[in-house]
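Known limitations

Structure tokens in this collection are predictions and should be treated as such. Users comparing against experimental data should check residue numbering before alignment. To illustrate the layout, the record for Alpha-1,2-mannosidase is reproduced below. The input appears on top and the generated tokens appear beneath it.
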Amino acid sequence: MSKKLFATLLAAVVYSASFARGFTQYVNPFIGTGAVANSLSGNCYPGATLPFGMVQLSPDTQDAPDWDKASGYDYND
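Generated tokens:
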């Protein structure tokens, strides 16, 4: 009985693994980094961070003197 159950479970796992999809192709990590309009500047950070955002490693695309590029990265640059 256990051999039939094992064979059935193994066949189900192998069969279901053939239908695995990579949904990461539909994800755009840069959504929210670019400005939509003059008053809406995005400022969402696209890079990796350490816990609680203490270190954020990502390129700074513009050195703005004002608060326009608060995250340091803008997709439109």
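For this record: Residues 3-57 form one domain. The mean pLDDT is 73. Please report discrepancies through the issue tracker.
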